[in-house]
Amino acid sequence: QHFILNDVSVGGVELFGEFGLVASLQDEEEGGLLFGLGYLEVGHCPNGDYVVMDVDSEFGEIRYVCHEECAADNAFEEFSESSKVVAPTLGEFVVGLDQKTIGSDYFDEPSAQAQC
Questions:
Q1: 65 contacts 83 by C-beta, under 8 angstroms
Q2: What counts of helices (H) and strands (E) characterise the chain?
Q3: Quick check: 79 and 85 in contact, CB under 8 A?
Q4: What is the pLDDT along the chain (116 residues), one digit of tens a residue?
Q5: pTM here?
Q6: 87 FRET partner, CA 20 to 30 A, in 5, 94, 109, 112?
Q7: What end-to-end distance do the CA atoms of the chain give, in Å?
């Protein structure tokens, strides 16, 4: 498959391109900590919430991580309580954002959002 070199915005959510993914993995304060927990940071919500992909136990699952409650400055200690699954795959996540069935941040819950 092909990588997108530049970041893109879908439904207001910024998704990292190839350069953004590499930069995230090199960032020891955020992306590196998340990767150590089994998650790849793949983007950011407009309000700063993290968009992560599970690369460990539930491979491919997309989660939002609430940046106010769970952030790099606390080493993501409250990850399980401050994150939620929003899509089972990245493809379904992008389609959900585009069709507005997935909200654009941790607290945005459209009534039509599919339960994952």
A1: yes
A2: 3, 6
A3: no
A4: 555 678 888 999 999 988 889 999 898 888 889 999 999 999 999 999 999 999 999 999 999 999 888 877 888 888 888 999 999 999 999 999 999 999 999 999 664 333 33
A5: 0.85
A6: 5
A7: 26
